[in-house]
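Below is how a single chain appears once it has passed through the pipeline. First comes the sequence as given, then the structure the pipeline wrote out for it. We keep one example in the README because the format questions we get most often are answered faster by looking than by reading.
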Amino acid sequence: MKALLQRVTEASVSVDGDIVGRIKCGLVALVGVGRGDTKADARQLADKTSQLRIFADDDGKFNLSAIDVKGEILVVSQFTLMACTAKGRRPSFTDAAPPPEAEKLIDLYISYLKETGLMVKTGVFQAYMQVQIHNDGPVTIMLNSKDTRRK
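Resulting structure:
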C-alpha cells in the first residue's frame, strides 16, 4: 500500500458537487492499494501515517505527529498511485489491487487510523472526486508499506 501524505491547513473532497469530507489542520492521505497487499500493510501504513513526525514543534522542528497536534485526516482512495510508467506514455495500472480487495484494505486503514483517536473523514471509493487541498509548507511525504519493513 502507498499513501501520499500532504500536511494541510484545510482540505475537502466533493462528489457531484457535494462535499462528502472536510477537515481543518491535519493530513490528506491519498491511498493506493497494490496486488498482494494485506491487513499488515494497512496496519503499518496507518501506524506510520498517524505517528509520522511532520508537524513543527515550538522550535520549528518536525517533532510532532498528527496524534500530538490532534490533527484530522482526510483519506481519499487513489488507485493511480499504483501506476507503472516504465513503458510508453500511458500508465499501466496492473499493479493496483482489484476494487473489492482495495476497498476492504482502505476501510481497514481508516479503521486503524480511527483507533488512534484521530478524526478521520473520507472520500467515496471509486467515485469521481474533486479534492481541494491547502498544502501547509508545503509538506508532502510518500509512504510505502513495503518500505517500513526494511531494516
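The chain is about 20% helix and 40% strand.

See the next section for the split statistics.
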